[in-house]
């Protein structure tokens, strides 16, 4: 039996020396080390051998099998390296060519600007929170001094979920100002919050308008807050976002939930105040509305207007992004065009 195993080993070694390819090596493995190979059959037949020969024959067969397996592994590595060398040496592969760069993901430009706006106010002590996009009529209008028959409701092209005749109707919020009410209902002064989020209005989409856009609402309530605090806070914000040399203008405006109300505009970065098509010849670009919180709004939320005062502001994120980067169409932000988005 041992002589037969030796002849089998010698034949295997002779054939292995002549193997030149991976496929030939696999055929050799099946023939000499496979489940149906002569060596495997010999190991299975050990039970028929006399007891005095069984141990010696088994040990010899296992030694041959281990040796062949070791030679197989070495041959596989040699053939694999040879195959790689042939591929590199051929004309089909040039290892000196630069690799293909994988695209790197990044934040959407609107998200980038929201984070930057919130970071500016965070440095001034404002907390950042969010609120529901599906609102009640009470929070979106009534509590903000816009009752059911108030003409200011015509300013908001509202997307109603329930019938608008219902005093408790649900709607997609038209601005982030409802969070003023929710914040004052849930927290006691002093308060300093900014609220970024989506808002919705039922209007035609064009280069400067969309049915969904983002706003950042701000609220500060404390004792002895004055109009000067409002102006200094927002002037600092404008300089942080648009640069220290940018001119900032404060002008009166009307909003039902503030008194007095105002608007903040920055100097047109294209004409530097001289007047151009971008600014409509005025030299200024409006970026946000603001004002001192109306005493009735404070009282409705359980805040004593005789003790506390505050200011609020709201800005459109898309408008600020358009002004900063000179984007000519708001629809680019949501087109999914990577050529546009990769610029930010």
Give a verbal description of the structure:
With 344 residues, this protein is of the alpha+beta class. It has 2 domains: 2-89; 109-132 and 184-341, BirA Bifunctional Protein, domain 2 (2-Layer Sandwich). The chain has helices at 2-18, 22-33, 38-44, 51-89, 109-123, 137-140, 178-186, 227-242, 295-300, 317-325, 338-341, and strands at 127-128, 134-136, 159-160, 170-172, 191-200, 212-222, 248-253, 258-267, 284-293, 309-316.
Helices and strands in order:
Blueprint: H1 2-18, H2 22-33, H3 38-44, H4 51-89, H5 109-123, E1 127-128, E2 134-136, H6 137-140, E3 159-160, E4 170-172, H7 178-186, E5 191-200, E6 212-222, H8 227-242, E7 248-253, E8 258-267, E9 284-293, H9 295-300, E10 309-316, H10 317-325, H11 338-341
Parallel strand pairs: 1-5
Antiparallel strand pairs: 2-4, 3-4, 5-6, 6-10, 7-8, 8-9, 9-10
Helix pairs in contact: 1-4, 2-4, 5-10
Task: Note the main attributes of this structure.
11 helices; elongated; 10 strands; 344 residues; 2 domains; 19% strand; three-stranded antiparallel beta sheet; BirA Bifunctional Protein, domain 2; single chain; seven-stranded mixed beta sheet; alpha+beta
Briefly summarize what is shown.
By secondary structure, the protein is of the alpha+beta class. The protein has helices at residues 2-18, 22-33, 38-44, 51-89, 109-123, 137-140, 178-186, 227-242, 295-300, 317-325, 338-341, and strands spanning 127-128, 134-136, 159-160, 170-172, 191-200, 212-222, 248-253, 258-267, 284-293, 309-316.
